[in-house]
Amino acid sequence: MQDIISNLIHAIKNKDARIGVIGLGYVGLPLAVTAARRGFKVLGVDIDPKKMSALDAGASYIEAVSNEDLAEARPAMGWTTDFSELATCQAVIICVPTPLTQHREPDLTYVLDTTRKIASSIKPGTLVVLESTTYPGTTRDEIVPVLEAAGFRSQEDVFVGFSPEREDPGNANFRTATIPKIVAGEGEAAGAMVKALYEGIVDAVVEVPNTATAEAVKITENIFRAVNIALVNELKLIYDRMGIDVWDVIDGAATKPFGYMPFYPGPGLGGHCIPIDPFYLTWKAREFEAPTRFIELAGEINTAMPRHVVDRVAQTMDQTCGRGLSGSRILVIGAAYKKNIGDVRESPSMRLMELLIERGVTVDYHDPHVAEIPQMRMYPSLKGKTSVNLEGLDGFDLVLIATDHDDVDYSAIVASGKPIVDTRNAIARRQLDGTSVIKA
Predict the structure, then answer these.
(1) Among residues 2, 119, 148, 151, which one has the fewest Cβ atoms lying within 10 Å of its Cβ?
(2) In what order do the strands lie in the sheet with 362-366?
(3) Are 248 and 242 in contact (CB under 8 A)?
C-alpha cells in the first residue's frame, strides 16, 4: 500500500499524473484548461456531444475560457464522452451539478451516477476528488461507499478528497488559478494527494482537517451571501416605505472602514450556488434536529422578491400609463443572473418573465450576453425566446431592468421616455436623468 501512495504522490508532484475532469461546464472547463496550462495532461469528460463538437472546433462555450486559452491548453488536453478512458487517469475530479428537487431537498443523482461510472473505469491507485457543492458528510457517506461497493478500499487503493469550486463568473479580478483552493482528504494520504494536486494547478491551497469541514466551508460562504442579500432586500422594502433610498444608505454605510461589508438588493437570487446551496444544509440539519431559522428566513425573503418587483411594475403601469398589466408589453433588460455574463441558471429574470406572462403581459427581453434562452428545467415555456434590440423601444409600455450589464445602452432607454422599473440602480449609478424611473 505504501508503494501505491508514494508512487501516486510522486506522479502528482512531478505532473506525470493524468487528470480526468468530469463535467465540462462553468466549473469543469476552466479547471481542466488551467490544469493543462499548468503542465498536467488532462482528459475532459462530458456526456454532452455538443460540447465535444465545440471543443473540436476550438470554440469555447464558457466566457471564463477564451478560445486562446483553449488553444494554449490543447496540446495537453483531450476530451471525450467515454468514461472508460478514465482508466488512463491517476486523478479524477468530479464537477457535476448538485441541484435541488422540487421539494428543496438535495439531488445527488449526477454526483452518484458519475461516481458509479468512475468506479467501473478507474484502476487501483487513483485519487478521486469531488468539487460539486454539497452538504457536510457527502464525500465520506456517499462517495466512499459507492467506490467501496465496486471493490476499492478507501485509503488503501483508492483515495478520496473534496475541494469546493469557487468560480465567480464575470469577476475580472480572479480566475481559477488565482482563487485560493480549500482542500481535504479522507485520511492523511488522501489529504496529501489532494494538496499536491491543487498546488500544481492553483496559486494558493488552504488545508482543512477533513472533507466534512471542506464541504461546510463552501456551504458557509454561500449562506453568508444569501443571508446578507436577504437582509438588504428586507431593508429595501422598509426604507422604501419611509421614503429612503436604500442605495444611498448602503453607499453611506460602505464608507465605514471597519465592521461593515456592502451587499446590494435585487430582484431575487440567481446562479447555481446561492439560491440552492443553503438548502443543502437545512436538509442535513434536520438529521441533527438543529434549526436553521436564518437560512430559511433568508430563503423566504429572497424567493419573494420577484413578486414584489412585479407588484411594483403593476403599480407603475397604473400610475404612469393608467392601465393594468394585462395586455401590456414589457421589455426586460437582462436574462442572465448577474451582470456581464451569459449564465441564466436560476436567474430571477426567468421568474420575473414567468410572473408577468401569468398576468397577461407580452414579454420580450434584451441581453447582449444571452442571444436565446436555452432549455431550462423550471421554465420550459421560455425556451427559444430570443433577445430583441433596443430600436423597438417605442413598441413597449414599460422597461424593467433586471440585470445591469455594462454593455446596455441605458441612455437610449432613458431617452425613450418609457417608464422604467430599475431593480439594480443602474440608471442612477450612471447619473442619467430618468424622470420616470422607479426603483424596485
Answers:
(1) 2
(2) 362-366, 329-333, 398-401, 420-422, 437-439
(3) no
Which residue type sits at 327? Answer: G
Q: What pLDDT does 100 receive?
A: 87
The answer, yes or no, to whether residue 415 has pLDDT greater than 80, is yes
Cα distance between residue 102 and residue 207, in whole Å:
35
pLDDT tens track for 286-339 = 999 999 999 999 999 999 999 999 999 999 999 988 889 999 999 999 999 999
Name the nearest CA neighbour of 295 among 388, 387, 225, 223: 223
Angle between helix 293-316 and helix 348-358 axes, rounded to 10 deg: 50
pLDDT tens per residue, range 122-150: 999 999 999 999 999 999 999 999 999 99
pLDDT at 1: 62
Cα(345)–Cα(377) distance, integer angstroms: 10
| Non-local CB neighbours of 418 within 8 Å, separated by 6+ positions | 393, 396, 397, 398, 399, 436
Q: CA–CA separation, 349 vs 356, rounded Å?
A: 10
224: left (phi over 0), alpha (psi -120 to 50) or beta: alpha
Residues 94-109 as b or e (16 or more Cβ within 10 Å = b): bbbbbebeeeeebbbe
Give buried/exposed letters for 280-303 (b at 16+ CB in 10 A, else e): bbbbbeeeeeeebeebeebbebbe
What pTM, to 2 d.p., does this model score?
0.92
Looking at every residue in the chain, the average pLDDT score rounds to 95
**Full set of structural domains in the chain with CATH:** 2-209 (3.40.50.720), 240-439 (3.40.50.720)
